[in-house]
Amino acid sequence: MDANNIPTKSEGHSKRAVWSWAFYDWANSGFATVVLAGFFPLLFQDFWSTDTGPAESNLRLGWGNSIASVVIAMSAPILGAVADRSGTKKRFLFGSLLLGVIGTALLSGIEAGNWMLALIMFICASVGFMGANVFYDALLVSVAPANRWHIVSGLGFGLGYLGGGLLYLGCVIAALNPELVGLKTSTEAATTAFLVTAIWWTVFAIPLFLFVNEPAAEYKNEGSTLTYGFRQVVRTIQHIRQLKPVWMFLFAYWLYIDAVDTVIRMAVAYGRSLGFERQDLIIALLIVQFVGFPAAIAFGYLGERLGPKRGIYLGLLVYIAICIWGAFIRQPWEFYVIAVMVGLVQGGVQALSRSFYARLIPASSAGEFFGFYNLLGKFAALIGPPLFGLFGTWFGDVRYSMLSLIILLVGGGLLLWKVDDRS
Questions:
Q1: What does the domain layout of the chain look like in residue ranges?
Q2: Where are the alpha helices (H) located in 87-148, listed in sequence order?
Q3: Which among 35, 111, 137, 248 is placed 20 to 30 Å from 10, CA to CA?
Q4: What is the pLDDT of residues 249-293, one digit of tens each?
Q5: Of 2, 94, 38, 22, nearest to 351 (Cα)?
Q6: CA–CA separation, 161 vs 57, rounded Å?
Q7: Are the C-beta atoms of residues 132 and 79 closer than 8 Å to each other?
Q8: Are 42 and 175 in contact (CB under 8 A)?
Q9: Residue 132 to residue 79: CA distance in whole angstroms
Q10: How confident is the model at residue 119 (pLDDT cuts 50, 70, 90)?
Q11: What pLDDT digit, counting tens, does each position of 342-395 carry?
């Protein structure tokens, strides 16, 4: 990224704050790659959930993802409103981070065959991960001026892909060569990767807490903070109903990001169900990470120059192609090509969605409005992962799972078309 495009102190924003904010994506993407998309789906099917077949195992994993999403969906708007009122976004972020780190670390000690405990710890870690993102996203409006949100958001996702990819690469090397790190088996190295990820997440989150400032609390003397949170959610719902671009975008996002998240969460389990070797799946995920690094940053510039809607539509069209091809793949090289395609658009869709939404909402209520943003984004995951698993069981072939996502992508794209593009 061109340093000249980073906001300067003269614009009222610090470069150090921008980079510290973006670097949190480097920190938490270790969880997204090593746990969420990488080792957990593999170990869940091959190490913990060994008492059933691939389709049923995928269904269990899908329900686990959905439970975590429901928890965030029900709590995010209230906690976001509370954080806005009390000026405590960073404190809430820290609490969520702590839950995620502890859940991730505990995964490393769960015995083989204990799929229920593994799923519970995964749910706790996922709730922490997603909860922290509510407050992380909301801080975007305070670290950079509005005309740089697309670029700064892209920078965050770009650093996330790079950091997550590097950590995942290190964990993969350890899993393939456990003797290099003093471990006996690849499985032992894979479970140890959860502990390493927890440490990574904690250490690299520190700059955000040191150098990112948040606006002072604006709401005072309105009863208890929690009561205020509930009341403000009601007010926000009424406010959103009057802001057509906001609620139209939220519904569009609700649908299409579900498909994007489901690909992230279920791709490795899907590939394993098709009989691809672990090595093929590992290589594919590494491709996604390292292609995603420059692609996410490039999408930030695309959003600034051509508009975020066009960039999002480009990503959705590529995802539709991915779903169609993914239902018919037979060879590992096809999985690699699809991984390149995912890497090119995944971070871009996420980054442009976040920055586009930031431009539609009142900055003074960012935490609260991003609570709804995460509510719909994560509540949608209540549908996607189970639907992904159910299509495989309903039609007797896991390949049909990929086709289920096209419904969500098309529906989201149609609603997005009606959103006023203010960029």
A1: 13-209+226-416
A2: 89-106, 115-138, 140-143
A3: 137
A4: 888 888 888 888 777 666 666 777 777 777 777 788 788 777 877
A5: 22
A6: 28
A7: no
A8: no
A9: 11
A10: very high
A11: 888 887 888 788 778 877 777 666 656 766 676 665 555 567 767 777 776 776
As a whole number of Å, the CA-based R_g of the chain is 20
pTM for the structure as a whole: 0.69
pLDDT of residue 184: 85
Cα 261 to Cα 273: distance, rounded to the nearest angstrom: 19
Burial of 372 (0-12, 13-18, 19+ CB in 10 A): buried
Q: Superfamily assignment of 13-209+226-416 in CATH?
A: MFS general substrate transporter like domains (1.20.1250.20)
CA distances from residue 147 to 13, 82, 104 in whole angstroms, order as listed: 12, 27, 37
d(CA 276, CA 278): 7
For 77, list phi and psi in degrees, rounded to 5. -65, -40
Burial 234-248 (b: 16+ CB within 10 A, else e): eebeebeeeeebbbb
Separation of alpha carbons 405 and 409, rounded Å = 6
Residue 68 exposed, middle or buried by CB count within 10 Å (0-12, 13-18, 19+): buried
From CA 81, how far away is CA 326, in angstroms rounded?
40
Residues in CB range of 296: below 8 A, 6 or more apart: 154, 157, 158, 160, 161, 346, 347, 348, 350, 351
